Amino acid sequence: MTDEPLLPPDKWLAMGGDLTNCLWDSTGDLAFYEDLPITDALKARLEAWERWAGDYEDFLPREKRAPFDLKGFTASGLEIARALKAELPDWTIIYRDEFRWQYQKELGLTPAECEYEV
């Protein structure tokens, strides 16, 4: 038994705004920022962004949701994803753009066009 964190062997992460977790590995399993070899400052940013995601009521119809700065949330997430890539330069970091996802129909996007590598 080891206390070593379980890191994705392929060094691949997806980051997106979800109500419970913001990181996944290439198999779709949860990944935890606490286990990543990144600075405590970046871990704190990920934690705060994950908490912010919890305020977004995407499970409700748009007209029933509380006000939420989706553009700001998405932009902040992209900045954090870029910082993650800077600290893990040999990793693949995919950003799942919540604004594109929520407005994909209006923007004429496919689900695949709502995520991109940083």
Quickly describe the structure.
The protein is of the alpha+beta class and 118 residues long.
The total count of strands amounts to 4
State the helicity in percent bands.
25-40%
Please, what is the average pLDDT? 91
Oligomer: single chain
Q: How many structural domains can be distinguished in the coordinates?
A: 1
Low-confidence stretches: none
**Envelope shape:** globular
Secondary-structure element series = EEHHEHHE
N→C terminal distance? 35 Å
Structural class: alpha+beta
Please list the strands of the largest sheet in the order they lie side by side: 2-1-3-4
Beta-strand fraction estimate? 5-15%
| Structure annotation, total helices | 4
Query: How would you sum up the major sheet?
Result: 4 strands, mixed
Radius of gyration: 15 Å
